[in-house]
Amino acid sequence: MRKGVLRPGHIQLRVLDLEASIKHYVELLGLHETDRDEQGRVYLKAWSEVDKFSLVLREADEPGMDFMAFKVVDESTLASLTADIEAFGLEVTHKEAGDLKDCGRRVQFTAPSGHVFELYAEKAYTGKWGVEETNPEAWPRALRGMKAVRFDHCLLYGDELAKTYDLFVDVLGFYLAEQVLDPDGNRIAQFLTLSMKAHDIAFIQHEEKAKFHHASFYLETWEDILRAADLISMTNTSLDIGPTRHGITHGKTIYFFDPSGNRNEVFAGGDYMYPDHNPITWKAEDLGKAIFYHDRVLNERFLTVLT
Question: Could you tell me which residue ranges the VOC domain spans (predicted)?
Answer without folding.
Answer: 7-122, 150-269
